[in-house]
Q: What sequence folds into this?
């Protein structure tokens, strides 16, 4: 079992920044891929960014490329999502997920999910 706990969400004005954190614990071995997804009201889930505990080139959705940055602290077993230049359309619940396939953008390839953290961007 892998436990994931997100934090850092909140309300911010357009153009502002937030940093989300995802703390992983439990049997993380074998679940080296870490991703962020989001779900806006009335919409389906959307891939945001992905990385892995072993490094490699992160991947990003086109909608966030250049504004969001994913990073990790292996010692703390924590993944971060730095979100800059936020837009109202970034409003969503953001979920952290752990999976086996590095860089995957598919929700069904992530086996463990956090509870989500709300990000609201006002115009």
A:
């Amino acid at each position: 079992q892998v436990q994931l706990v997100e934090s850092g969400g909140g309300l911010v004005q357009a153009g502002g920044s937030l940093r989300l954190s995802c703390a992983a614990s439990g049997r993380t071995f074998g679940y080296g891929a870490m991703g962020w997804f989001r779900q806006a009201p009335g919409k389906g889930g959307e891939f945001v960014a992905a990385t892995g505990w072993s490094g490699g080139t992160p991947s990003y959705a086109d909608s966030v490329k250049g504004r969001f940055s994913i990073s990790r602290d292996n010692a703390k077993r924590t993944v971060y999502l730095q979100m800059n230049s936020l837009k109202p359309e970034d409003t969503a619940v953001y979920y952290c997920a752990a999976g086996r396939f590095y860089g995957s953008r598919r929700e069904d390839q992530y086996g463990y999910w956090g509870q989500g953290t709300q990000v609201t961007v006002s115009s």
